[in-house]
Amino acid sequence: MLETVYHAYVGTSDPVARKHLAAALRRLTYLETQKDLPKGYTSPKGLTQKEIEVGRYEGKIPCIKLVRDRTNFGLKEAKDLVEKYFYNHGLAFKGYNVAGTPIYAPF
Question: What is the pLDDT of residues 1-28, one digit of tens each?
């Protein structure tokens, strides 16, 4: 399947199609190498303990960066995964409450 997507990517000149095919290539490559993940990694459907701690104590953006590095997801997929995981598990990012509303300090 990876070879078929690669040939479709090389054979098209449409920039939108190339963008989507490139994302598919990244995901397929990740899934093929997922079998032998190092200890401490989880499937792309979950977050590692380190990613959760970074989200809670450093913020959403550093957490998304870690998820993108681990999963080879694009920005939108990683952001959706992180936000959905935190929401479903009742966790809050640094500077936000559990509902996702920013917490502002009174001046």
Answer: 556 766 676 677 788 877 777 777 677 6
pTM confidence score: 0.54
With a CB cutoff of 8 Å and minimum separation 6, the contacts of 86 are 55, 92, 93
Phi, psi (deg, nearest 5) at residue 96? -130, 155
Question: Which is nearest to 85 in space by CA: 69, 33, 28, 77?
Answer: 77
Is residue 48 domain-shared with residue 24, that is, in the same domain? no
**Is position 18 within any domain?**
yes
Are 44 and 31 found together in one domain? no
Q: Which tens digit of pLDDT belongs to each residue from 76-99?
A: 989 989 988 888 888 888 877 666
Main-chain phi, psi angles of 57, to 5 degrees: -110, -15
| Residue pLDDT, tens place only, 54-69 | 998 898 999 999 999 9
